[in-house]
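Pair request: fold both.
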Amino acid sequence: MIRLKITEEEIKELEYQRYHHPHPRVQKKMEVVFLKAKGLSNEQITHCMGICANTMRSYLREYEQGGIEALKQVKFYQPQSQLQEYQGTIEQYFKEHPPTTIAQAAHVIEQLTGIKRSEKQVRIFLNKMGMKRLKTSSLPAKCDVEAQETFKKTL
């Protein structure tokens, strides 16, 4: 059973933070602990806040272990791509040798890093790097090949 010892100063801080903290998840955590400090039962808190009992207990344990500062922390799981560590190499290579298709980019990335990714994942990764595909159009029959190459490299 979780036993909370909440002082009057902490109750005032919880009351303020439950409306004024910039992140809504933190506001909800503050509200749960505030309601618990006011003596509401666990069932009443879960019903009022629209959360399950496990979530409420995790908020209370968080407060029990680290106080109000622990409640202010926002921790979301954000997985990182394995390609992230090769981003500089990939970016430098593509600036010198821009790929014409996503399939080509995926093949080159596999050769450079040894990591195979689908075309969709490669497209997402390249977009996160700030690279975007160039719109193509038909070329006239008589075209300047050198001008095309300089155009590819400048964009």
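--- second member of the pair ---
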Amino acid sequence: METAPKRSRVPEFLNVPWNIRDVLVFGLAWIGIQIVLFILIGALAPVIPALGNFLQSAQSGNNIAAVFALDLLDAAVGIGVVTLYLHKYKVGWSALGWRRVSPLRALGYLVGILAFFIVAANVLLTLVSVLVPGFNPDQAQSNEFIGASKTHANLALIALVLLPPVLEETIFRGFIFPAISKRTGVVWGAILSSALFGLVHFQANITVYTFLLGLLLCFMYVRLRSIVPGIFLHMLNNYLAFLAFTSK
């Protein structure tokens, strides 16, 4: 007598063909390719001095255009490696959550989650500051574009508001979240992928803030089956922060 097939631990749209091993290889490839490119630029610098000047000015943060170019390189490599996985498994961008969604339904979630996030983030940061000695919820975010938000407003807007949400939602919610969820279930998939999302921001108060944001973006993805509304929510969050930077 045949037994009934086991139910998937995740919704069908999250049952992607890649897995946690692919996520680990992706991370190594994303970092490794950039290291190789930097080594090549360094090797060519004596022959092409402009390349050496470009790399030095970008690393020092003195040339915002050069820093922006490195940001674009980082994004291009990340999206490029993800694209290779889509070709490997013969799936389209819809597998990453790039799907159509009802605008009105998405707007309702966007407004509700943003309002909840603003309140919950302040509560969480206050709680962590009470529980963790030395934690500073008001620590200023360190970023070259924050300091240049007035003198290079257009580049700062793209680098801080427009580019990160597209890249991060595609990778963290579209690629990493479902891969982990296949192994652990949706709840732990959201927690672990959001923890990783927070940690890559390399600053304690921003890590806490983005961890909570990541959880809500995972929730939004599961409810709407699309990362597109999450991209807009992420952009709106970053834009509010951008306005705060430029107003100082």
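Observation on the second member. The chain has two domains: 18-91, 93-248.
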